[in-house]
Design a protein that fits this description.
It is an enzyme of class 2 (transferase). With 306 residues, the protein is an alpha+beta fold. It is 26% helix and 25% strand. The longest helix is centred in the middle third of the chain and has 24 residues.
Length: 306
């Protein structure tokens, strides 16, 4: 089976490896163009592009699936296209090229969390269980019929990054199994059923913690935006980055946003009980342990996060 693989970030790499190791003929990889990375903004290939180069697979770079990209896809004559977090829409003209269409690995239990940030939104919402599906890509936003499903428990301290890492590997197996079933004529996709929820792409503002919210909601938010775009708060008008916090239901007297030492722990008040800071990155400095940051402050009595 001739496969076009479309993907961009690191979470898509296990799927590419699974298809290659599974004996599929990956005829080309579609990925987004090199992007500036780091403070020096060095143009850097996507993780999928780097892996494709290591595997000796031809790469099609395209910020969007336009006429030029469609011509290149058509030229490699794929039987099916597998897509995992490519980062762009696939127009009808491209959907029609492979005889088996496009199969999307999506990291949610559709129709829950349709969109670009399903795992992040699931963690923020406090879901106990999430998962991944393979489905037939169509014009609608993650609306196509489902081939296969897997579930994954959300652990209490999981960040979005933790959960995506696990799902990227289990989902890779699911994708390979789905393509094998399609190749054997044994795949029978079923319409999605259940309550629809949307997972739009996260913005920087999604990481801004509101200390008047309950502690549990703040903890979920911080874990859901880790590692990107990251949790943050304001201190004296400057943005301060935070790693996920710990719940401290034993301390309830702190006002929302007020910072105080409790033994060696650095606590912040919320709309319910306190949370404990783990690591903090003040403006212009490196990430450090919260206790080290507190020792460097003259006093925490007047420190209030906003």
């Amino acid at each position: 089976m001739r496969v076009l693989f479309a993907g961009t970030p690191a979470v898509a790499v296990p799927s590419l490896d699974a298809l290659v190791n599974g004996g599929f003929e990956v005829v080309a990889v579609l990925t987004r163009p090199d992007a500036p990375v780091g403070r020096k903004r060095v143009l850097t290939p996507s993780p999928v592009a780097r892996r494709a180069a290591e595997l000796g697979i031809d790469v099609i770079h395209a910020a969007r699936v336009d006429a030029e990209a469609i011509a290149k896809i058509s030229a490699v004559q794929p039987d099916v296209a597998a897509i995992v977090a490519y980062g762009g829409l696939v127009p009808p003209a491209a959907l029609d090229i492979p005889r088996h269409g496009w199969v999307n690995l999506h990291f949610s239990l559709l129709p829950a969390w349709r969109g670009a940030a399903p795992v992040q939104r699931s963690v923020i919402a406090g879901d106990d269980v999430t998962g991944a599906v393979t489905f037939q890509l169509e014009e609608g936003l993650d609306t196509g019929p489902v081939f296969g499903t897997l579930t994954e428990a959300v652990k209490p301290q999981d960040t979005a990054g933790d959960l995506l890492e696990r799902l990227s590997h289990s989902g890779a197996v699911l994708l390979a199994q789905t393509l094998s079933a399609i190749d054997a004529g044994k795949a029978f996709p079923q319409p999605q059923a259940g309550e629809v929820s949307l997972a739009p792409k996260l913005t920087l503002e999604d990481g801004h913690l509101n200390w008047t919210h309950p502690a549990l909601a703040i903890s979920r938010q911080a874990r859901g935006v880790t590692p990107e775009p990251g949790a943050w708060t304001l201190l004296d008008g400057q943005r301060v980055k935070l790693e996920p916090v710990r719940l401290r239901p034993d301390v309830a007297e702190l006002a929302p946003g007020a910072v105080a030492l409790h033994g060696k722990a650095v606590l912040v008040g919320t709309g319910s009980h306190a949370v404990e800071l783990t690591r903090i990155q003040p403006a212009g400095k490196k990430m450090m342990a919260a206790a080290d940051w507190a020792r460097g402050m003259a006093s925490l009595e007047s420190v209030v996060f906003e």
